[in-house]
Amino acid sequence: MNTFLFAWNPEKWNWTHLEQSIEELEQTGRVKEMWSCASHKSIKVGDRAFLVKLGKKPTGIIAAGFIATEPFLAKHWSGEDKMVPRVIVDFEVLLNPQSEPILSVDLLKQGKLSEQHWTPQQSGISIRPEVVDELEALWFDFLTTQKIRHNPFIPTDNETQKTYTEGTPNQVTLTKYERNPHARKKCIEHYGLSCVVCDFNFEKVYGQIGKEFIHVHHLRQVATVGKTYEVDPIKDLRPVCPNCHSIIHKRKTSFTIDEMTEILKQNNDGQNTSR
Question: What is the pLDDT of residue 227?
Answer without folding.
Answer: 45
